[in-house]
Design goal:
about 650 residues, mainly alpha, 35 helices, elongated
Length: about 650
């Protein structure tokens, strides 16, 4: 094989410098390279910068380049791009400010010492200029990322805070980022800047890949803006700026989408604000925020516990309790039997204790809670006493109560099969009153069955309550497949697309792991009824939906348009076992776990005539007009589903 020439036509080439075997010479050459690079106008400068970008991503904790002046070099290059537009437009220099800001963010991601060096090197002013939008949204994204990392450290936060405009710019960017990316890039394919496309896809992939990555980057732009604001929210002196109603009411809707599920986004910032007494007042004064917190608390969102924390803190604060208690208590009651949620141990007991303190303190407060709320809390406290009482009962008596509850439950199943949905719901309520509280598996089934009755009776709020109680009782929490599906439908009925979507995706995941023949996915095929609902909610919860409506990408709320085609009504309320192709006709209501104490041969044969509730279904179908649908591909659905396993 011929020997490759080691001669390089470019004096001082960075890649040649990095090959230097002598460590001292190598360091001296790198130092010289960093000092001279900003003043050079040679072609090909983007190549070493992209090499440094790769190094920073792969080895963010390596101090070598930090000590040799990489921060000073990157800051100077950003300034050069901002001040010298002729240089910026020459060759491929347009990429350099992006790479430079990204390098700063990568090296300050983990090490406070590096962040201090970056601040001393003067990186903040050029990053702030990028944050202003002096170039494009692509540079804004990496600038807010770098500033967010610098703001997380106590020793460098003050340097960020001294630039008073950073907080205001971040708030503005969090509210407008999705619209900016949609209108400046996503909407018009033929107007996309080529360097944006290259950065998004690394030259691999066409328009579809660009659009998918643009959605991901838009989500990151918003979430990283919220992360930067969150650093300010820990300081009381900044809460008055952050806690303006026009910003607060938008936070529950900032959720990162399916493409950025690792960020707590808006709910994370709300939790930080709520943790401070000064922040709780403005939040309690916005009823829509409290309602959103209740919805998130009763969902399968990964950040569900953050919403619960907010509600508990608002109730514990005597200055905000009277404003939120009537809205918050019903949601907390549904969650009062949750055992563990994330790092929260004995969460249900915590909820009960907070509500008990609320009742005790309201007597001494001028602001009393409503009689209905008080009655609900007292019922919960009575059930706690009932549990203690049951613990002292002989086993024989408990078995008698279980048997009585089973008989009533079977009566409910029979009524459901005959089409008497109201009577069935009443029987399930009676069975719940008889069933021992520690028989959790049986109570999961009863709550879930009653939720199905509420669905058919067009009572979505009651269905959400019962499905949530079933999911809270289940072990693990939020993993009872049929309750997920029923709550997904109920949330769809009241127009909460995100909550419905998350439940439906989790339902699909549970089906893929279930041994229940009614639920298990046949040949890895997502059930048609679940596929339809997920696709519908993906349209409704689409990250760019609001921006698309505003800019004409979607004609109106009722007309699909955009990438997802026309809207569909999807008005058929189907149960898991009814809708699946090849269903064997088993009772959707008889969904007991295999190892249930009530499981017996007779109950395993429970079935119902699907035609028995045909009249209910027909009335529901006839009350809504169906529309034609244009759907995303199944492979994208499965990809989204797997991300939430």
């Amino acid at each position: 094989m011929d020997k490759v020439s080691t001669d390089c036509p470019y004096p001082g080439c960075f890649f040649c410098v990095m090959k230097e075997g002598n460590p001292s010479k190598r360091r001296a050459s790198v130092l010289k390279f960093f000092r001279e690079l900003p003043s050079q106008d040679d072609d090909g400068q983007v190549l070493p910068i992209s090499g440094l970008w790769n190094t920073a991503m792969a080895h963010p904790n390596d101090p070598e380049f930090i000590e040799l002046g990489i921060f000073e070099c990157m800051a100077a290059l950003i300034w050069k791009g901002l001040k010298n537009r002729r240089w910026l437009s020459h060759d491929q220099n347009i990429y350099i400010p992006y790479y430079a800001a990204h390098i700063i963010g990568s090296y300050t991601m983990n090490m406070e010492e590096f962040a201090e060096r970056a601040v001393h090197a003067g990186v903040i002013p050029p990053l702030v200029e990028l944050l202003r939008g002096r170039l494009t949204w692509v540079e804004q994204r990496v600038a807010v990322r770098a500033l967010g990392h610098l703001a997380t450290y106590p020793s460098t936060f003050s340097a960020i805070a001294n630039h008073g405009e950073v907080l205001e710019l971040s708030i503005e960017l969090a509210m407008s980022s999705l619209e900016i990316v949609y209108s400046h890039f996503y909407q018009y394919v033929d107007r996309r800047l080529s360097y944006h496309c290259d950065l998004l896809t690394r030259g691999m992939g066409g328009v579809e890949m660009e659009s998918r990555k643009a959605e991901e980057w838009a989500s990151q732009l918003q979430c990283w803006s919220l992360q930067l604001i969150n650093c300010f929210a820990f300081k009381t002196e900044f809460l008055s700026v952050i806690s303006k109603p026009e910003f607060l009411i938008k936070l529950p809707g900032m959720w990162g989408g399916l493409v950025n599920e690792n960020s707590p986004a808006g709910i994370g910032l709300l939790r930080t604000i709520c943790h401070n007494k000064m922040g709780r007042g403005p939040i309690a004064s916005c009823p829509s925020i409290i309602e959103s917190l209740c919805n998130i608390a009763r969902s399968s969102d990964d950040w569900q516990y953050m919403a619960i924390d907010c509600l508990l803190w608002l109730i514990q604060d005597t200055s905000t309790c009277h404003k939120v208690v009537d809205k918050a208590v019903p949601a907390l009651l549904d969650l009062s039997e949750v055992s563990t949620l994330g790092d929260h141990k004995n969460l249900g007991n915590t909820i009960i204790n907070v509500l008990q303190e609320c009742i005790q303190s309201q007597a001494a407060s001028r602001n009393s809670i409503s009689p209905r709320t008080k009655e609900q809390i007292e019922e919960l406290l009575n059930s706690k006493q009932r549990l203690k009482w049951e613990k002292g009962m002989p086993k024989e008596d408990l078995h008698i109560k279980q048997a009585a509850a089973l008989v009533v439950k079977l009566e409910g199943n029979s009524l459901f099969s005959s089409g008497n949905i109201t009577g069935a719901a009443s029987k399930y309520s009676e069975a719940l009153s008889l069933c021992p509280l520690r028989s959790k598996k049986e109570r999961v089934v009863l709550f879930s069955n009653r939720a199905q009755c509420h669905l058919l009776l067009q009572q979505p709020l009651a269905a959400i309550t019962d499905a949530t109680r079933a999911l809270s009782l289940h072990n693990p929490v939020n993993r009872h497949a049929k309750s997920l599906w029923r709550r997904a439908q109920a949330y769809d009925m009241i127009g909460l697309a995100k909550e419905s979507l998350l439940d439906a995706i989790l339902f699909i995941n549970e089906c893929s792991q279930s041994n229940d023949p009614d639920l298990s996915l046949r040949q890895n095929k997502v059930p048609d009824y679940a596929e339809r609902l997920v696709k519908k909610q993906m349209r409704s919860a689409w990250l760019f939906r609001e921006a698309a409506i505003k800019h004409g990408g979607i004609q109106c709320e009722g007309d699909g348009g955009g990438i997802y085609g026309r809207e569909s009504d999807d008005s058929e309320w189907e149960t898991a076992s009814e809708s699946d192709i090849g269903n064997d006709g088993r009772d959707a209501m008889g969904d007991d776990d295999d190892d249930s104490e009530w499981n017996n041969e007779e109950e395993g044969k429970d079935s119902y005539d699907r035609a028995s509730i045909k009249g209910v279904r027909t009335a529901q179908r006839n009350s809504r007009a169906k529309k034609t649908q244009s759907m995303p591909t199944m492979c994208s659905l499965r990809k989204m589903s797997s991300e939430w396993t």
